## 1
Amino acid sequence: QVQLVESGGDLVQLGGSLRLSCAPSGFNSDFYGIAWFRQAPGKEREGLGCISMRDGSLIQRGSMAGRFAISRNRAKDTVDLLMTNLEREDTAVYYCAAESGSCSWSASDFTFWGQGTQVTVSS
C-alpha cells in the first residue's frame, strides 16, 4: 500500500525556519519523482519543487530560491523540505506527492499524496 507521510509542520515565528519530511512507503521510491506542494486557504495548490529519486535531479521554484530547499535524506529515507526566513504568506498546508517516472510542476500529474502538514507563520 503506497503511503506518503509528511511531518514537521508547526507554528513558527516570522523569519523562522522549519524542516518538513516526507516518508514514502509501500513502493520502490527509487523510480519515482517526489514533490512538495502547498495550498493556502482560498488558493490553488502550488508546486514548490520535485526530486527524482532515480538520479537525484531537482527542479525547484525560482521564487523560493534561497529560502526553500528540497533534498533527499538517505539515512532517514525521506525527502525533506527545508524552509528558512519564513513569511506570513508561507502559511499553508504542505503536501508531498509521488509519481512514477520524472518530476512535474503540475499537481494533476501526481497519483499519490500524503495527508498534508500544517505550517503557520505568525508575527
## 2
Amino acid sequence: EVQLVESGGGLVQAGGSLRLSCAASGLTFDDYAINWFRQAPGKEREGVSCISASDLSTYYADSVKGRFTISSDNAKNTVYLQMNSLKPEDTGVYYCAVEPRWCRGAENDYWGQGTQVTVSS
C-alpha cells in the first residue's frame, strides 16, 4: 500500500520558517517526482514545488521562488520543503503527491492527507 505522510505544519508569524516533510512508503521512490501543493480556503489548489527523485531536478512556483527550498533524502524516501520568509498568503493545507518520474505537471498517482500551515500577520 502506497502511503504519503506529511508533517511539520503549524502556526507561525509572518517572516518565520517551517519545514514540511513528506515520507513515502510502498513505492519505488526513484520512479517518482514528488510535488507539494497547497490549498487555501475558498481558493483553487496550487502547485508549489516539485522534485524528481531520480535526478533531483526541481520546480518552484513564482510565488515561492527564493523563499522555499525543496530537497530529497532518497535513503529515507522523504522529501522536505523548507519554507522561509513566510507570508500570510502562504496559509493553507499543504499536500504532497507523486507523479511519474519527472516534474511535468502530470496527474498525481498518490496523495497525502495534508498538513495545515497558518501564517499570522
## 3
Amino acid sequence: QVQLQESGGGSVQAGGSLRLSCEASEYTYSSSNCRGWFRQAPGKERDPVATIWTSGRSEYYIPSLKGRFTISQDNSKKMLSLQMNSLEPDDTASYYCAAGVSRSGGCQIIYWGQGTQVTVSS
C-alpha cells in the first residue's frame, strides 16, 4: 500500500518554528531510495525544498531556506522530517512529502503525500 502521511503543519508567527513529519508505509519506504519535501504557494508551481537519500546525502534547492530548514530521516521508523526555523511569511505554502528513486543524480518522484498547510503571519 502506497502511503505518505504528513503532519505538523499549522499557523505560526514570523520567526517561529515548525517541524513537519511524514510517515511512510512499509511498501512506500522500501520501494524508494530518496525522499523529499516540496511546497506550493497559492497560484504558484510546486517547488522542491529538499531531498534526502537513504545514504543520508541531502540537497536543498531554495537559497533563502539555507540554514533555516533541515531535512532528516529515521529509516527505522520510515519517517521523514523537515525542521523549519526562522519562518517568514514567504514560507506560507502547502508542503508535500514525496518519495522516489535515484535517477541521473536526482530523485525521480513516484509517490506523493496529501500535503499539509503552513501559514506564517507577519
## 4
Amino acid sequence: QVHLVESGGGSVRPGGSLRLSCLVSQSFFAANAMAWYRQSPGKEREFVAAIDTDGDLIEYADYVKGRFTISRDSALSTVYLQMNNLKFDDTAVYYCNRATDPRALDYWGKGTLVTVSV
C-alpha cells in the first residue's frame, strides 16, 4: 500500500517561505517521478512541480516558476518543495503523488495546508 505523508504547511505572510516535505513509501518513491499538487477551495487540484526519479528533469507550473524548488532525497524517500516569496494565491492544501494527470490518481495523502495572509 502506498503511503504519502505531507508536512510542513503553516500560515505565513506574503513574501514568506515554507518548506514542505512528503514521506513516500520506498518502492513507490523509487519507481516514480514525483510531483506536488495543490487544491484551493472551490478549485480543482492543480499541478505545481515535478521531478523525475534521478532528479535530473524538473518541471514547474508557470505560476510558481522562479519561486518554488522541488527536490528529492532517495535515502529518505522524501520529496521536498521549497516555497519562497509566497503569494495570497498560493493558499491551498498541498499534496504529493506520482507525476501524472492528477485526475488519474485515485489515492492521496491528507495533504498539508498552506495559508498566506496578512
